[in-house]
Amino acid sequence: MMPPQDDRPYSGLLVLDMAQGMAGPYCATMLGLYGADVIKIEPPQGDWIRLMGGGADGMTPLTVVNNIGKRSICIDAAKPAGRAIVEKMVERADVIIENNRPGVMTKLGLDYARLSAINPGLVYVSITGFGDSGPYVNKPGTDSVVQGMTGMAIANKDAAGTPRRIGIVVPDTITAMYGAQAVGAALYARDRKPGGRGRHLRLSLAESCIAFQAGHIVDDFVFAGQYKPPITVPSGVFPTRDGNVILVTLRDAMWEGLCRALDREAWLTEPRYASRTQRSACAEEINRLIADITRSRNTKDWEALFDKHDVLCGRVQNYAQLREDPQVRHMGYFAETDQPPYGKLPIPNIPGVPRGEDLPPAPQCGQHSREILAEFGYGAEEIAAFEQAGMTKQV
Fold first, then answer.
1. Residue 13: CA count within 13 A, CB half-sphere
2. Fold assignment, 5-215+332-388
3. For the chain, domain boundaries
4. Which of 94, 273, 333, 281 is nearest to 190 (CA)?
5. At what angle do helices 170-191 and 23-33 cross, to 10 degrees?
6. How far apart are CA 21 and CA 244, in angstroms?
7. How far apart are alpha carbons 305 and 258 in whole angstroms?
8. pLDDT of 304-359, one tens digit each?
């Protein structure tokens, strides 16, 4: 069951999310699901992710999942009065997250040097595309560009060798995860001794993608220019009568089980299939023969047969099937949120976060502006003046 907010690891922490898009906001969302109070500070026009994809009232699916449970305040930080509000909030904050291009926060007067002088315990997270210096410092770091630059598109090449972008937003998501991990370590280091200081954490989408592929990168270095047969044959996606199934045979015993499941025990005495190395040399032939066989039955029938013979297998599912998968439902991998303007939405839980109750919804742009300003000591007349000057707004 979901514990009370006060019992979560980051209960009592204040996180200011000045980031836009996905990497920074999703990092802040993870901290919030561990108990932190996350305030999303948006410019008056809102986070640009509110325009990406379909949806109503600026609540696109990407907006929702990357901002679950936050409160939103609109502040024009380019104006002196707006900067002053951010500085007052920083006095109480534990973490601030931003993902502007290098130099933007300095220009606003909200860089680490200035804000850490206000609050020495502040953990300041900066996320960029390629780093805060170097020849790519001003290069936009979009998902597709970073996937191409870091070798990820080549790792996902098709059968003809053509590089392909992975069809989900990998760079932002893994940067958010590395960022949340780094924040936890920085908070631990700060709080180990009285008067501990915060620090400036610098992450980039490129660096995160490179770290994520460490095994493949080292493998490429060790075996550069050398032919490497497939790790195991068969291994891959095979068609069934009503879908697809993934098969992997890591050991000879699995190969033997596969042959029996396919009713092809004659393959066990075929000299050309006698070892993993020999099967690798016949990979195209074996994969073709298996595909011809697997087309004859439904996925669930093959899955039962392969399980019976201890063959690694799994059905290929779309997202609707995933949500209804019995193991997924049993483990509670999805929660729900009552999200305006849609009603109940399924939201994947963050691994390691306690579960059992609905998640709080994501906010509309500026939904909590007056409430937050009042919490930081601003009176009704001041707030009204801010709104009249276009420096903040309340939906």
1. 30
2. Rossmann fold (3.40.50)
3. 5-215+332-388, 235-321
4. 94
5. 50
6. 34
7. 9
8. 999 999 999 999 999 999 999 999 999 999 999 999 999 999 999 999 888 888 99
